[in-house]
Amino acid sequence: MRDQFHRIMRFPRQTIFAQIGGKRFFAPTNLTQLAELLEQYPDATLLAGATDVGLWITKQHRDLPVMISLGTVAGLNSI
């Protein structure tokens, strides 16, 4: 657990992290942070808009232990 905490704390303050009841949410701010999170959590659910994810949780009662939002990642806001 301590090692996980130190890995999470290496991200700059701009990255949002929340943990509630064993579920984790990350909102990285750049591609490097995103790549590191994906390496650490390869099965994470990626959020972009998330309307469908909201339905998975409320209607299908899916368990999503790790979610990573793409909405704050610089470089992904344009084609």
Total beta-strand segments: 4
Discrete helix count:
3
Q: How many strands, what sense, and barrel or not for the largest sheet?
A: 4 strands, mixed
Radius of gyration: 13 Å
Mean pLDDT: 80
Global geometry = globular
Q: From N to C, what is the helix and strand string? A: HEEHEHE
Structural class: alpha/beta
Question: Roughly what fraction of the amino acids lie in strands?
Answer: 15-25%
Distance between the termini: 38 Å
The helical percent reads: 25-40%
Numbering strands along the chain, what is their spatial order in the largest sheet?
A: 1-2-4-3
Topology of this protein?
Elements: H1 2-9, E1 16-20, E2 23-27, H2 31-40, E3 45-47, H3 51-58, E4 66-69
Parallel strand pairs: 2-4, 3-4
Antiparallel strand pairs: 1-2
Describe the structure.
33% of the residues lie in helices and 22% in strands. With 79 residues, it is α/β, with parallel strands linked by helices. The mean pLDDT is 80.
